[in-house]
Amino acid sequence: TETTQTRTPAWALAATGSRDAESAPPVADVELGPTGRPRRSIPEPAPLSSHGPAKIIAMCNQKGGVGKTTSTINLGASLAECGRRVLLVDLDPQGALSAGLGVAHHDLDMTVHNVLVDPRVTADDVLVHTRVENLDLLPSNIDLSAAEIQLVSEVGREQALGRALYPLLDRYDYILVDCQPSLGLLTVNALACADSVLIPMECEFFSLRGLALLNDTVAKVRDRLNPKLTVAGILVTMYDSRTLHGREVMSRVVEVFGDLVYDAVINRTVKFPETSVAGEPITRWAPTSAGAEAYRGLAREVIHRTGR
Ligand code: ADP
Ligand code: MG
After folding, report:
1. Number of other CB atoms surrounding residue 34 within 10 Å
2. Residue nearest to atom 20 of ligand 1 (CA)
3. What is the Å distance from ligand 2's center to 279 Cα?
4. Element (DSSP H or E) covering residue 246
């Protein structure tokens, strides 16, 4: 039943042909994924015999509540399940990433904040192991909110995070940076040292608009600070296939962003808020759930695309 049927405005659907596509007969023997496209076939990730240098992925969207932190935790845990060594970096003063992994971040004396503003503090001084094997964390708390102001007057203020992570690159296969919901200096620090940006986006009509601004910022950082920066992909989160609105936004997203959209799609489910309370990734809290499987699928796509 379509209880939340908010219709997408007609102008946004111009030339999508989404309704025609929906009524087209399915091609035999092709499994269509939630994106409406055939699923790409992705090999099982090969085990690694050696580790590093890490690929840095910035988990970025200036809109709050779109699943950045949830995706950082669960992509990280899924990559770790594949035998990858993963470091998660909490770059949001709210500390939700740290909390979501069961780290008592309020009480920490040393956090990412110290690493960014005090040259005597190294990332190793604040690094903690999580309960998940192969998954480490650089935690943060509200102290980090001072960093943007403290960094403004520094030389190389956009490279503070890159300098801090550099000594760790050889120990990890992936470093995922959970950005705060803004395009301020902390987020620019993440983009300036990242190989790529992974954009979680809530499957809602208005989410599309913010992506243009994010794309401009990515392009600016690429031009001015980090020529290697690419968009890794777009992850559709909080999808509800039962509503027409959800399906319409999905087809629009696929039309606009094409192959950048991951086949893995994260459904809206109360299991994710529950995992935040439990302080565990969904791959441990509800290992056989659809949500856990979706993030495992995302990990396979990320490994396949980055070749690591
Ligand atoms: P962000 O980091 O972008 O602000 P979060 O990952 O913190 O977003 O998610 C915002 C809220 O939505 C959290 O309460 C989280 O538990 C919840 N949430 C995340 N992903 C989903 C999902 N797929 N379905 C339902 N709730 C979700
Ligand atoms: Mg967050």
Report:
1. 19
2. 67
3. 14
4. helix 244-257
